[in-house]
Design brief:
It catalyses: 4 hydroquinone + O2 = 4 benzosemiquinone + 2 H2O. Its cofactor is Cu cation. The chain is mainly beta and 578 residues long. It has 3 domains: 129 residues, Cupredoxins -  blue copper proteins (Immunoglobulin-like); 192 residues, Immunoglobulin-like (Sandwich), CATH 2.60.40; 202 residues, Immunoglobulin-like. The protein is 12% helix and 36% strand.
Length: 578
């Protein structure tokens, strides 16, 4: 009998000890979690680029804005004061915002804008995410200059799943207009034409040596021979996918969108706006100065784009000083051709999760969304000056033939939470209203979408699959599709029309990458899956801002679950009113 009791007692004792240790470890982890308080003042600041000074909207007078550094598990409290002349909101791109949709930031989706003179405090906790995210304005085209890096270090007491780099450097790729970006989009909205393309790309706010009046401020990244450093690369550009390369050096990709990936080696990376990629780079070349450079991946045939190249300098500390009066230019990398879809595809299809993952296999919501452009006929009575798109039309864009219209009197989340009628409907189509040859020669009768504020309702816990199908209406191009409030697994991507009979065989159900922004290939498709475990209203949109302006968006309404921990929190008291 005694032996029998002992045999039970030992496992129980072990379990008790394990439980105590687990609770202690959790308590230590929670005790180490910090609250970071920041103040963001949105203000006009004189910024000189390309020989001209503009009154540029910035955060705290900085361009780019401040880098925020936290650990996984920490809480951010950011008070945003608007001292600019425009409405503003801040979006924390890629942050899951579990139950805190009020802090997500997209204007008229989860909040009304912060009016000039107003303020709002964003409060949210980083849960289970490590790597590189970023923050940006989510109001008109303010994010052209209102953006910065959000670096999430591993939980206190844990480390990276790769050797710790000697140093870490955020590399923010941006776009610069030699004009006021708000004027650029307002003119396009007035005329119905495409907006003017940018005048420069930037690395950490600087165009670099290949532009006028710029070489004295070119960004320099210092390295020591032999060391391995981490570059946190962010495409903060408004409207352009970008190739990025460092002359004579290779990258080891270790993360993307704040998720670790199976490391792979490449000499070039491609990022759509919104995407982040963490790469290790080893200083294993002769000590010298090497250009890091970025330029467009332009997949839309015939569409105008900014064809310039931005550069920064990777400078070895032991690089020999040139003789007096001698100028030695850094080595310039050879970047892919602007339309090199093969290189872009090789890169995007190389991603795998760092380990085997639990992919939802039983699907509750099987959705099929077309994504692409359109042309609206000139409205009756409108002047020709407001219809300067192709053949006297106005540019538009849509998902499943619905061009998304933002409300103006309430945010969608407020309307949902308070039961305000007439702000939105929940009849966004699960499949295209008309089936057609999406990537073929599309009938002109399908080029004009309807305009509406339609949401798609999801039950809490629903397992969702979405086929994102690009169209060739007007022109086909690569679309970076971003879903707020969620990460999703990208199971596969391909060209042409998605075929469920043959393409499902290509699904990676073992270790697909976890992303928040998917590059839907030009004239192709991507398939994503996620579990609807975060209640709220979450916009999904193309991260080319010109396309979201034209309506390439929709939103999910995710219902509350059963328990309090499955429900949206109450709105903050200082939530801006419309």
């Amino acid at each position: 009998m005694q032996a029998f009791n002992m045999s039970i007692a030992n496992p129980l004792r072990s379990l008790l000890i394990y439980t105590i240790l687990f609770l202690f470890a959790n308590a230590v982890s929670l005790a180490k979690a910090k609250i970071h308080n920041h103040d963001f003042v949105i203000q006009a600041t004189p910024v000189k680029r390309l020989c001209n000074t503009h009154s540029t909207i910035t955060v705290n007078g900085q361009f780019p804005g401040p880098t925020l550094e936290v650990n996984n598990g920490d809480t951010l409290v950011v008070k945003v004061v608007n001292r600019a002349q425009y409405n503003v909101t801040i979006h924390w791109h890629g942050v899951r915002q579990m139950r805190t949709a009020w802090a997500d930031g997209p204007e008229f989706i989860t909040q009304c804008p912060i009016r000039p003179g107003g303020s709002y405090t964003y409060r949210f906790t980083i849960q289970g995410q490590e790597g590189t995210l970023w923050w940006h304005a989510h109001s008109s085209w303010l994010r052209a200059t209102v953006y910065g890096a959000l670096v999430i270090h591993p939980k206190q007491g844990t480390s990276y799943p790769f050797p710790k780099p000697k140093r870490e450097t955020p590399i923010l790729l941006g776009e610069w207009w030699d004009a006021n970006p708000i004027d650029v989009i307002r003119q396009a909205t007035r005329t119905g034409a495409a907006p003017n393309v940018s005048d420069a790309y930037t690395i950490n706010g600087q165009p670099g040596d290949l532009y006028k009046c710029s070489s004295q401020d070119t960004t320099i990244v210092h390295v020591d021979s032999g060391e391995t450093n981490l570059l946190r690369v962010i495409n903060a550009g408004l409207n352009q996918q970008l190739f990025f390369k460092v002359a004579n050096h290779k990258f080891t990709v270790v993360g993307a969108d704040a998720s670790y990936v199976k490391p792979f080696t490449t000499s070039v990376i491609m990022l759509g706006p919104g995407q982040t990629t963490d790469v290790l780079i080893t200083a294993n070349q002769p000590p010298a100065r090497y250009y890091m450079a970025a330029r467009a991946y332009a997949s839309a045939q015939g569409a105008p784009f900014d064809n310039t190249t931005t550069t920064a300098i990777l400078e070895y500390k032991a690089a020999p000083c040139p003789a007096k009066g001698v100028i030695i230019n850094p080595v310039l990398p050879s970047l892919p051709a602007f339309n090199d879809t093969a290189t872009a595809t090789t890169f995007t299809s190389s991603f795998r999760s760092a380990r085997k993952v639990e992919v939802p296999t039983k699907i509750d919501e099987n959705l099929f969304f077309t994504v692409g452009l359109g042309l609206n006929n000139c409205p009756a009575g409108a002047s020709s000056s407001s219809c300067q798109g192709p053949n006297g039309t106005r540019f538009t864009a849509s998902m499943n033939n619905v061009s998304f219209v933002l409300p103006s009197n309430f945010s969608l989340l407020q309307a949902h939470q308070q039961g305000i009628p007439g702000v939105f409907s929940t009849d966004f189509p699960a499949v295209p209203p008309v089936k057609f040859d999406y990537t073929g020669n599309v009938s002109r009768s399908l080029w004009q979408p309807i305009s509406a504020t339609k949401l798609y309702k999801l039950k809490y816990g629903a397992r969702v699959q979405i086929v994102l199908q690009g169209t060739s209406i007007f022109t086909a191009e690569n679309h970076p599709i971003h879903l707020h409030g969620y990460d999703f697994y990208i199971l596969a991507e391909g060209f042409g029309n998605f075929n469920p009979q043959t393409d499902t065989a290509k699904f990676n159900l073992v270790d697909p990458p976890l992303r928040n922004t998917a590059s839907v290939p030009v004239n192709g498709w991507s398939v994503i899956r996620f579990v609807a475990d975060n209640p709220g209203v979450w916009i999904m949109h193309c991260h080319l801002d010109v396309h979201i302006t034209w309506g390439l968006a929709m939103a999910f309404l995710v219902e509350n679950g059963v328990t309090e921990l499955e429900a949206l929190e109450e709105p903050p008291l200082d939530l801006p009113i419309c």
